[in-house]
Amino acid sequence: MKLFQAIENSATALTAERFRMDIISNNIANANTTRTPEGGPFQRHMAVFATRLEKGRPAGVQVVGVVKDPSPPKLVYKPGHPDANPDGYVAMPNVDVVSEMVDLISAARSYEANVTVINEAKKMVQKALQIGD
């Protein structure tokens, strides 16, 4: 039944958007991290989505990976900072908190839209079951 397929597709989108929100939250949490285990400042992460296929047909969305934003770190003049270079500049993460918040709102809206699809599909199934009563 197509309604169940719609529920399943929206469920995959819920999982993907939740993952995206987790990535964005991690970016915001590390917006001031100047030192990581790999060395250097934190690099912004981005979730990569792709169409999930079943029997050659689109069947929702899936997370295929996480990539680091290749943009360079921001240099901020803070001569007293322990991570400052000899010229007094600190390499700060390439995270723009305002952009991250916009992305977070977008992910939340997508999540809400998919919850609405699932709820409406459930209502349709319930109404279909009442037809025989």
Architecture overview:
This protein has two helices and four strands, in the order αββββα. It has one domain (2-130). The strands form two sheets. The protein has a two-stranded antiparallel ribbon with strand order 1-2. The model has no long low-confidence stretch (mean pLDDT 94). The chain has helices spanning 2-29, 97-130, and strands at 45-54, 57-68, 74-77, 89-92. By secondary structure, the chain is an alpha+beta fold.
Structural class: alpha+beta
Work out the helicity level. 40-55%
Number of strands: 4
Strand order across the biggest sheet? Answer: 1-2
Task: Characterize the biggest β-sheet.
Answer: 2 strands, antiparallel
Q: How many domain units?
A: 1
Low-confidence stretches: none
Shape: elongated
H/E series:
HEEEEH
Strand content is: 15-25%
The radius of gyration is: 21 Å
Task: Throw out a few tags for this protein.
alpha+beta; about 130 residues; two-stranded antiparallel sheet
List the helices and strands and how they pair.
Layout: H1 2-29, E1 45-54, E2 57-68, E3 74-77, E4 89-92, H2 97-130
Antiparallel strand pairs: 1-2, 3-4
Helix pairs in contact: 1-2
Task: Compose a concise summary of this entry.
With 133 residues, this protein is an alpha+beta fold. Helix content is 47%, strand content 23%.
